[in-house]
Write a structure and sequence with these properties.
The protein is an alpha/beta fold and 351 residues long. Helix 3 packs across helix 4. This is 1,2-phenylacetyl-CoA epoxidase, subunit E. It is an enzyme of class 1 (oxidoreductase). InterPro entries: 2Fe-2S_ferredoxin-like_sf, 2Fe-2S_ferredoxin-type, 2Fe2S_fd_BS, Beta-grasp_dom_sf, Cbr1-like_FAD-bd_dom, FAD-bd_FR_type, FNR_nucleotide-bd, MRET.
């Protein structure tokens, strides 16, 4: 059974610059509460802006069992990265939910060869997974293709170098820079489909990789996914984490029935309640007016926090970035992206 959303105060213990435009923040978990994380998970923080609650999620970059540490790249005008982070100091407190996220290898699949393709701040969950895999099993091997603009913009470079020194024979790192000349032409330029294909054919032992983990901008993820599938990698062996979506959602089908207003039954923590939804809004957007305890973070379909199983009725999914193929086959939806196409719907957050 899924517990209702709770936020607790995390005390800042360190703030460290890791490259020209990014910092890490390390937290002390609240006393008596478990904030243990699986590799690749994230923390969701809440802030108030002009009297309105805002939430932001940041990936944990430390391995499982390590410190609670996030990496944040500055986004000009960003609520947290540009507004709060520059003045954050040890001793300050931020409110956060417990670690969440499904971009994590299950224990039974952590041996063998894992491949990673990351760009920019996409390294944050990737570093957590890599560190956990290599420390957890002498049979684990890792190949990482990591794209950045310049040497100065490489996040967590020292941490990657430390891992390389510690696991010299089991960690292979390929740096690709889009705005600097590298040691070879192949290592200079954007991580597009052509370059990724060449890297997989010529640099990385791609044939022996059992699982691929991708994190970065939407365009790079799409190119990497197509390149891997074109080379015969099974879809279930490709795992994707998207931080934000760059494009608008698709328009509704022309034959979609017009729903004047739907009723949504929401099941969370064993409690069911029914709320009315205004026309054309997602289940989450409409339901939050009555059920403030519903789980959510990004509201854009990329984090998966609001995932629930559709047990009755129909919906149109605006986007489904955070859902895997098995999730879709089993009837799961992202409630922040699910617009009812029937007069009544029931979603189960506990499923």
């Amino acid at each position: 059974m899924r517990a209702p959303v709770e936020f607790h105060k995390l005390r800042v213990t360190r703030v460290e610059r890791i490259c020209a435009d990014a910092l890490t923040v390390t937290f002390e978990p609240p006393g008596g509460r478990s904030y243990a994380h699986a590799p690749g998970q994230f923390l969701t923080f809440r802030f108030a802006r002009d009297g309105v609650e805002e939430r932001r999620s940041y990936s944990i970059c430390s391995p499982a069992g390590g410190e609670l540490r996030i990496g944040v790249r500055r986004v000009r005008g960003g609520l947290f990265s540009d507004g709060i982070l520059p003045s954050l100091s040890p001793g300050d407190e931020l409110e956060a939910m417990a670690p969440q996220g499904l971009f994590t290898p299950p224990p039974e699949s952590r041996d063998g060869h894992h491949g990673f393709i990351a760009a920019g701040s996409g390294i944050t969950p990737v570093l957590s997974i890599i560190g956990t895999l290599l420390a957890g099993s002498p049979e684990a091997r890792v190949s990482l293709i990591y794209g950045n603009r310049t040497t100065r913009s490489v996040m967590l470079a020292d941490e990657l170098a430390d891992l390389k020194d510690r696991y010299r024979d089991r960690l292979h790192v390929v740096h690709v820079l889009s705005r600097e000349s590298g040691a070879a032409p192949l290592l200079s330029g954007r991580l597009d489909a052509g370059r990724l294909g060449d890297l997989l054919d010529r640099v990385v032992d791609a044939a022996s990789v059992g699982h691929w983990w991708l994190c970065g901008p939407e365009g790079m993820l799409a190119a990497a996914g197509r390149t891997l599938l074109d080379r015969g990698v099974p879809p279930e062996a490709v795992h994707v984490e998207l931080f934000y979506s760059e494009g608008p959602p698709p328009p509704p089908p022309e034959d979609e029935p017009e729903i004047i207003g739907a009723k949504a039954t929401l099941i969370l923590a064993g409690r069911a309640s029914t709320v009315g939804l205004p026309p054309g809004v997602s289940i989450l957007e409409g339901a939050l007016r009555s059920r403030t305890d519903l789980p959510f973070a990004c509201r854009s379909g990329v984090c998966g926090t609001c995932r629930a199983k559709l047990v009755d009725g129909g919906t149109r999914q605006l986007t489904s970035f955070a859902l895997s193929r098995p999730d879709l086959a089993e009837g799961f939806v992202l409630t922040c992206q699910a617009v009812p196409t029937s007069d009544e719907v029931t979603v189960d957050f506990d499923a």
